[in-house]
Amino acid sequence: MKTQATPEAIQAQPFFHIPFWQQPAADIFSQRALRLNELAAEDSSDWQPYLLLLAEICTAQQSLLERYTGADWVLPATNEGDLPLTPALLSENRGLADQLFTDLYALLHEQLSPTAVQVWQEILQLSSEERIRLCQLAINQQLGLAQQDYQIWLNAVVQILYTLVARSLAADTVKPCPEPGFCPCCGTDAVGAVIIGHGELEGLRYLCCGLCNSRWHSVRARCSFCDNSRDLGIQRIEQATEGVLAATEAECCPSCNAYRKRYRLAKQQYADPIADDLASLILDMLLSDEGWQRGGANPFLLMGKIPKH
């Protein structure tokens, strides 16, 4: 199933058109895997094995995205004003989700530790309905402590399904949300933003979804949380002149006391908001010490622990 922009919609675009919404790239997961491997090579801490694990997951995700492109799936019916991808997407495509769980485990299990294999076996032994329920909790960051070890695996499968469907949507079917920081395609809080580094869109800010992997334009002069346009600040680690921190900044709003990280593609053209977020947590620690509240939902960031892998 694929929706296309009509010729009339294309002709109606102005000469200089700023695309509001950008669908996920066809190779989004392989790009992320490359970036995670680059970041892991620069990291000598205990975090490095986790970055390498995520690179393996992304490689498997890319394989399944390509395998199931063209597969049959159902886009749930929506009412006027609803987002294109609703929470019902999972339950309406339970069979495909079940197959994605089975296939992802098959691609990864030889690289996993016995502990991770045990976690996967627990997931696969659940009923289809229970897996879907847990996926919904993972999307909303509401998993209980007893289920935290499931999080990266649940999110990995959900990402594949949502990205697969988002790639089928025409840009003119995705409209802005009332809350600018939430994905207009699936409603997820943006994981971060990129500042375009070249071409006609140079300097524009695009917020990035950590679930369906789409991007949407958001005016840089306004807070992506509360829409405030006064006294916005940019925080960075000034001493960082190379590596991940050189291109990483935080947009801080004194009105809501929140910040969201952004990445300047002119300084690091391969920056990925999910991967680079995980490799730049020192900036989050410094901002937390100053009293700022982190915003943005990274599906692979587990606060306080490194998952079993």
TrEMBL record:
<dbReference type="Pfam" id="PF24860">
    <property type="entry name" value="FdhE_C"/>
</dbReference>
<feature type="domain" description="FdhE C-terminal">
    <location>
        <begin position="222"/>
        <end position="301"/>
    </location>
</feature>
<dbReference type="GO" id="GO:0005829">
    <property type="term" value="C:cytosol"/>
</dbReference>
<keyword id="KW-0963">Cytoplasm</keyword>
<dbReference type="InterPro" id="IPR056797">
    <property type="entry name" value="FdhE_central"/>
</dbReference>
<dbReference type="InterPro" id="IPR006452">
    <property type="entry name" value="Formate_DH_accessory"/>
</dbReference>
<dbReference type="InterPro" id="IPR056796">
    <property type="entry name" value="FdhE_C"/>
</dbReference>
<feature type="domain" description="FdhE N-terminal">
    <location>
        <begin position="19"/>
        <end position="177"/>
    </location>
</feature>
<feature type="domain" description="FdhE central">
    <location>
        <begin position="182"/>
        <end position="220"/>
    </location>
</feature>
<dbReference type="Pfam" id="PF04216">
    <property type="entry name" value="FdhE_N"/>
</dbReference>
<dbReference type="Pfam" id="PF24859">
    <property type="entry name" value="FdhE_central"/>
</dbReference>
<dbReference type="InterPro" id="IPR024064">
    <property type="entry name" value="FdhE-like_sf"/>
</dbReference>
<protein>
    <recommendedName>
        <fullName>Formate dehydrogenase accessory protein FdhE</fullName>
    </recommendedName>
</protein>
<dbReference type="InterPro" id="IPR056774">
    <property type="entry name" value="FdhE_N"/>
</dbReference>
<dbReference type="GO" id="GO:0051604">
    <property type="term" value="P:protein maturation"/>
</dbReference>
<dbReference type="GO" id="GO:0008199">
    <property type="term" value="F:ferric iron binding"/>
</dbReference>
